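Encode chain A's predicted structure.
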Amino acid sequence: MTTEPPGAATPLRNSGVGRSGWPTRTAWGTLALLLAAFAVFESQKYGTSTTAAALVSFVLPDLARLVGIRRPGVLYQAVNSGWIPLVVLVGYTVGPIVWPPLFTAGLGWLTRIAFDRTRGLELT
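Encoded structure for chain A:
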C-alpha cells in the first residue's frame, strides 16, 4: 500500500470525451436521426413492404432478447453490432440485388443500433 503526500499529482480522469461522452453520443444521435429520416423516405417511396422491413429490423434487438439471446454471447454481439447492417447497406448499394425491403431493413437495424448508442448502451 502506497501513500501519496498531500498535493501530489493525481492521474487525469476521463473528461467525458471518451467512449460514452457527450460528443460520441451526439454523433450517434445525429446518425440515428439521419438514418431514420432516410428509412422514412425509402418507406414512403416503395410502400408497405419496405415499411414493414424497416420496423421489424428496428425491433430486432428486442426480438432477439425476447427469444433468449443474452450478453455476452456471439448472437448478442451479432445482433447489436453495426457491421452487419452496414455490410447489408453497402452490399445492396454496389451489388446487383434490387429489393428495396432489404435496404430499408438495413436502415432500420442500423438506426436502432445508433439509437441504442445514443442512449449509452454499449456493445461490451
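The chain is about 65% helix and 0% strand.
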